[in-house]
Amino acid sequence: MPTLGGPNSTVTTRFNTALEQSLQLIAAGNVAAQRPAPVAIDLNAVSKTVLTAIDPKTTIMRRGLSVIRVPAWIVAEIGEDFNEVMAYPKIDLPMYQPLSDRSVERLLPNINKIARNSVTLMETNQRFIEAYMVGLNHEFARKLLWREYPTDQRGSYFRQFWSVGDTINSEGVSEDALKETLYDIPEIDRWAPTSALGDHNNRAAPGEAARPQAVLIIRGELLKKYPNTVIFAQHAKMTGDLREPDWLTAEEEKNPPRSKTRTPLYQARPVDDLFFFGFDLTIDEVKGTGGDPGWYFVLQERPGEARFGLEESRTAPIETFDDVCWNDAMPGIKSGQFLSAGALSSMGFTEPSSVSDPPKHDQWTDDRRVNTASVSSARWAYMLLRQPVMVAVHADEMLAENRP
Prior knowledge:
The chain is α+β, with helices and mostly antiparallel strands.
């Protein structure tokens, strides 16, 4: 029979130890198996943190700066702002031409109603120009993307609608600076999101509202026959009840003030006999409002281009050689036919009735001296040389009387 109170055997001791450790293991396992209470996660904050951490603008910049030695002042200037370089082709061709080549009616509806051998005024439609240029740039960006050109499609490839090839660099600025002032629209990626079509005239001064500009339209053979005709706008003045051009003084001709004379900003020639000339003036300004006498549009034959001939006909007496017509030279002769060397050997001149006109009277005096000179090539050249012609038409004469 077993007895109580004796010492444990080796086996018993090891069994007791194992049982104790087993209970401790079970207790520790119960503690470890307990699930903690769920913790709420801010998914918005997590997503923003992840996107910021993997943003190529940040990661590529940091990676590049870690392997490329860049001066500290450049790193400080660049900071964390890292964008692709906006390098894109710039095409400065006047884009009205492709439009009119497809259909001139798209450029100017009812263009056939402009009478031949006439001058008139119209105003620009800036909304149409901007809509056309935006669509043009958008389609060209798509084409570049399709051709795998490295582009972010933000480029403004076309900014020139009108032709500015005849513009004179009077300010002496660089070619790039001059181009920037002549573009019809600013870079499209700089347009304010809240702006509207028609608000982006690149020639308007900062803060100045966009306004339609006056366009002088000339149709006929005149500019085809005399392509170097000088065209400009001249401010008018009132002399009593008479309205006349306010011509420049000798001093003003050295540096013509814009308040008195304007040259065309741009031009276009959609068809062979139709010419557009755009001015930095509104229709109301050229017509004259609020007591202002308005503006004249002047067509002037270039003085340095000599022109020889005789008048077709005359109704007044001959005062100078400028008044001599073909019939005076030889009765029955027509313009373009040959004259004999003895024709116009001596002409009878009538003294100008208005001696108060010094240029006219001086010309009469000089012509009388040449009239009595012996026949020579120099005398013929003097007699047949035509004085430069200039025509000034006020804007009010080209606009409808009932215009509001």
